[in-house]
Structure formats: structure tokens, C-alpha cells
Amino acid sequence: LDDHHINQQTDADALARAAEQWFIDTVRAGSDRIAVCLTGGSTPERLYRLLQAVDLPWERIHVFLSDERFVPPDDPRNNMSMARRALLDHVAIPTNNVHAISTETSSPEESARLYEAELKAFYGADRLDPERPLFDLVLNGMGDDGHTASLFPGSPALVEAERWAVAADAGMEPHVPRVTLTFPVLESCRASGFLVSGASKAVALDRVRKGEHVPAARLKPVGRLTWFIDRAAAGEQR
Ligand code: 6PG
Fold first, then answer.
1. Which residues pair with 227 in a beta bridge?
2. Whole-angstrom Cα distance, residue 103 to residue 71?
3. Which EC class does it fall in (predicted)?
């Protein structure tokens, strides 16, 4: 991880503001159909709430998710439920532009298959072409153990090269089955951003910076990568 990939801010508020500007600039630079991949977890909520008030071309924006917890859609732990409450319920996005990972199927495996098919239909091909990234923007989070999406340390999903979405076990709370996009898909984007806040992330972030093997460090997007971090995550304050 080179320093030019890092956008460091003082605290969680400033971090959300910096990511907001990045989000706005990236989306406004998009074409007639803009695909963004959001993430769950608690850190992006602040960004999502800021984006409620921004004038964005929502009728042209399609929203996907990098991973989902296999709980009912109205469960507060459901990632899309959080994204709806914090952002999507407050903007004029057409219903059909919101691409949730269904958790009302027989299994996470089935949900992963359905989401993979939905992504391929949206993309219009079964193979990802580096010249034509799937997403305009992918927002990533990182757990205390260095996981991103639901790609946890030691998981077979980390090396999945064919499937676009797979079922995965949770390595951290909440311990519910997951559905996650795989690295080749998360990497197929014009802009990729990590949003990392708080002292609990300092150890994992240090490992990423040293080039050690944590899942988040494996992400090699086709487009530009930015790590939005705050001072606490950088280990500069407690
Ligand atoms: C999930 C997330 C996960 C998350 C990180 C960071 O479903 O849990 O997608 O990958 O981004 O765990 O989460 P926090 O922002 O809550 O620290």
C-alpha cells in the first residue's frame, strides 16, 4: 500500500466528508448508467446519511452490495436494510435500480447463484473485461481482523477466481452465514475506496501498510484505489 493511495482525515466525521466528495465526483463522472457497490458494517452509515442531501442522478444509478448477512431483509443486521435506512429510502432511486442480495431463498449458496446471475445480466456478459469494469465505484470496509466484504482470513472464498458471488462463513460478529462477492468482481471497477475508522482497525491497517497477508490487502482493483482512514485507524491516537 503506497502513501499516494491514502487519504487520511482527523476523525470519523472528516472521513465521511472526504468519502462523500469522492463518491460525488466519481458518480458525476459516470456515464448514462452508473453502477455502485456499497458495503455494510457500521462505518459507512455516516457517509450514507450525508449522501441523502446530495443532488445525484439517482435515476441512472444502480446500487449493489458487496456482501450480505443471511438474515431477513428487515433484520437490522441485514446490510441492505442499513443502506436503505441510511440512504436509499431518502432518495429518488427507482426500485428496480436497487439490487439486493436476496436472503429469502433456501440457502446462502442459492442466493449467491442468483446474485451472480443478476450481476452477469446487468453486465451483459459472463466474463469480466478489464477494459470495461462492472462497477463505477466500489466502497469497501475492513474488519478488525483485516477481512473485507465477507472475505475472512483463511476462507476458501479468498482465492475464488471463477464465481462472482459465493456463500461464506462469518469470521466475526454477527455470526450468521454470509453471501459475498469475490475479489475479481470487487476489483472490476473504475474507483475503489476503503473506509476505515477507529482504533480497533489500527493493527489490521498496519499489516496492510506493511504488505502483510490480510484479506483487504489482496484487493487489486482495475481502477484507482483510495484508502480513506482516520487518525485513530492510522494508530496516531487512542
Ligand atoms: C459486513 C461488512 C464487513 C464490514 C467490515 C467493517 O457485512 O459485516 O460488509 O465487511 O465492512 O466488517 O465493518 P465496520 O464498518 O462495522 O467496522
1. 6, 194
2. 6
3. hydrolase
- Establish whether residue 141 lines the binding site of ligand 1, counting it when its CB lies within 6 angstroms of any ligand atom: yes
Place of cell 470487487: 186
Q: Where are the beta strands (DSSP E) in the chain?
A: 6-9, 34-38, 61-65, 67-69, 135-141, 165-168, 178-181, 189-196, 224-230
Q: How far is the CA of 196 from the centre of ligand 1 (A)?
A: 10
Cell of 79: 446490510
- pLDDT tens-digit series, residues 97-127: 999 999 999 999 999 999 999 999 999 999 9
Residue (of 226, 223, 144, 147) closest to 180 by Cα position: 147
Instruction: Give the distance (Å) from ligand 1 centre to CA of residue 32.
Output: 30
How is the beta sheet containing 165-168 ordered, strand by strand?
67-69, 178-181, 165-168
Cα 63 from Cα 142, distance rounded (Å): 20
Cβ–Cβ < 8 Å for 182, 66: no
Whole-model pTM over 0.95 = yes
Residue whose CA is closest, atom 13 of ligand 1?
41
